[in-house]
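Follow-up to my post from last week.
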Amino acid sequence: MFYREAGQFKATYAEDSQIFPIRQDRIGMAIILLVAFVAVPLFASPYYFSAILIPFLIFALATLGLNILTGYAGQLSLGTAAFMAVGAFASYNFMLRIDGMPILIAFMLSGLCAAAVGIVFGLPSLRIRGFYLAASTLATQFFIVWCLTKIGWFTNYSSSGVITAQQIEILGYAFDTPMSKYLFVLIVVSVMALLAKNMVRSNTGRSWMAIRDMDMAAEVIGFRPMRTKLLAFAVSSFYCGVAGALYAYAYLGTVEPEGFSIEMSFRILFMVIIGGIGSVLGSFLGSAFIVLLPTALNVMFHFLEKDLGLELPSGISSSVELMVFGALIIFFLIVEPHGLARLWQIGKEKLRLWPFPH
Amino acid sequence: MDTGRKIGDVILSFENISLSFGGVKALTNIGFDVREHEIRAIIGPNGAGKSSMLNVINGVYHPQEGEIIFHGKHRRDMNTYESAKSGIARTFQNIALFKGMSVLDNIMTGRNLKMKSNFLLDAIYWGPARREEIEHRKKVEEIIDFLEIQHIRKTPVGRLAYGLQKRVELGRALAAEPSILLLDEPMAGMNVEEKQDMCRFILDVNDQLGTTIVLIEHDMGVVMDISDRVVVLDYGKKIGDGTPDEVRTNRDVINAYLGVAH
Amino acid sequence: MQFFLEVLLGGLLSGIMYSLVALGFVLIYKASGVFNFAQGAMVFFAALTAVGLHDMGLSLWLAVPLTMAIMIVLAVAIEKIVLRPLVNQAEITLFMVTIGLTFFIEGLAQAIWGASVRKLELGIEDVPLEFLLDNAGIAISQFDLVAAGIAFVLVAALAIFFSKTKVGRALRAVADDHQAALSIGIPLQQIWVIVWGVAGFVALVAGLLWGARNGVQFALTFVALKALPVLILGGFTSVPGAIVGGLIIGASEKLAEVFLGPYVGGGIEGWFPYVLALLFLLVRPEGLFGEKIIRRI
Ligand SMILES: Nc1ncnc2c1ncn2[C@@H]1O[C@H](COP(=O)(O)OP(=O)(O)O)[C@@H](O)[C@H]1O
Ligand SMILES: [Mg+2]
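User reply:
Got it. Predicted complex:
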């Protein structure tokens, strides 16, 4: 009864094209933001910030990046982590080599670096499609990680290849507690999510989806495939790049090139599939799901071992984790290809009709 | 049918167009012209090369031989972007809508060349991008009203019935406000009622907006009814060209097409 | 010159192994239009199962056929549970589903057999062939030679199976036209099971050979990543393409590593094949032997 759009008439196209045309959705969003910005900082413990909330937000951003490319523009990529690596190492070098570099500018520039790399590696998409392209993005993955490992300059010749991110400091304020880092990440991610939402609901987004759904027809009505695809690669890589920088600066603190492995790329792809291909909201849902899953499994194994006294072989939890990931991907692709985001929508529609079945 | 609209000069013509795919000759030495404001039909049995001809017109296919004269300019072939830019829009034989998008968004894509916003403005949205979006939305709503599809504007096109999809595709083409509209079997697979609607839309567009229309259609009744001139293709060759009456009485045409197919 | 030859031969020999794995991909792709990313996981699963059974006291003569039976069960399960509900889905969806399959199979293998590296003895020694060493001064491992020989026989057998037998032709027909295949009288589902079964067999052989060389371990799954550039080069639908592509990739990656590597810090084996394949792709998007793609609308 509470979730109703009946009686809310849109008098103008402006009202109809808001992000949340339905009032209850607007209220819901306001509550979520309020919780994220106020309630969570008041009540969460440092563990939650650094082990769950910060990685959740950062991976949501990376997932959003991949979603722009794969979900909206239809170009499958298996090299997401590599673009994150570019972002992480680029900001490290900007901060290291330019005196007084403001951190936000460094993050922007590192995003742009990732975008440039994305454009270069997106070039094959003009000739090749589908999993041919996926295979070529694997090349990106291997090549970039190799470059970062082999070319000492990128890691400032650190012998182990590990870099330590500088402190995040804005106008003299140091973001050094888990909570302040969380808030910093939250702001960056919220703003970028809003920008992404705006892009996908206007002509830019339509050009991506047109190329995705029917590239020949898109071409015939005047979208230029080259521009459109490369723009998707650039924007997507920008998002991944910034996510990578946050990953290094606000989450781990120290990173090495090998940390941005192909497994990480896959993990982010899974977030896209489970959360919802072609959905901004889905990027967040997918990230939350995959970040929480190992924790949930651990709790479960803990319960089995300690409380039920079961004797489990060592290493079983990581094997089971792999199996659960795989099974979930298969399940979602078969049963609900649009992921959690669609389930959420269906839930809302049910709510709209409630308590009357029709 | 005579509405006082004036058929103008030749705006598009073809000379000796030949197109082949590997060994298959899809078009051989085709030549014909299209006049401004007319409804020009292309007919012929399946595989005659009709769709290929449309693909040549808007630059999807590039003929190996021949010449295209468009707005007085001689050229070897067209390219998709330029032809869209110069006002050629089309629908496809096998519906080529963007399946993951709503009716509204599909038709909005038709306006992309008229939109000046870029991805940065789009990302910020408030301001120019929003103004533009709303302005074009108005135009699109006009088309939605014209095609009588208000009730499905937010529906994903994949869920629509075939006939409605064809209508949406016409809407997407119309959104570009084209000067030449290419329609590839717009009435295929429709029932009588739907066909009548579609005919009405085509005639209205031609009549009220003066849009030149090149139409491929199998329904002879419709073709004879609404077209000004007809080209007949068979096995990639032109075997007839003229007014519906001339074509109807043409021996070759009767033998090759009318007699066999219907 | 001798050194060059040695590297080249070594590369070609491992190239045949790549061909073998790539062939697994081609088989499945031709018959079901699925690009099976899980092929590498299948290699790992098969090898680990065979070794696991062997370590439990079964002789290899028993363990290997038993593993093959398990691979067939796996093929049936995949067809029933994963592929059937996804008939007529976009290629890219099918591709993603096989990524899920990859994780599942890898997890399953480790859940059953544990994650530690296992040794496998096939009874062929990994020593330079004396004959070649004495006469030409080229050091080629006896093991590599035998492995390549086995792989070669298998590749040849499959190529013949595909082009000469009735079932093989039916499989090809499926790739071209599902309707036509049905008219031959073999149900599609059955064909898929056969193909996945054969791919399982190929995975088993590849897994045993590679596992005997480097130990049966998780790294076996990376074989799939090696096979990808081979496929790009050879085309996803071509058996000869897989063979030639494998040889080219095998030889060029070893040559590049040995002769180019030192200048750039080494370790370029990981990406060099990809870059090579990509450059090639830009020139010929359909691969060496692949069928030309004509886009229609
Ligand atoms: N992209 C293409 N690749 C190969 N052959 C094509 C292609 N497009 C059209 N053809 C061939 O050209 C011929 C004419 O086809 P088409 O123009 O679609 O005929 P129609 O529209 O009159 O039925 C047919 O033989 C068809 O197979
Ligand atoms: Mg046609």
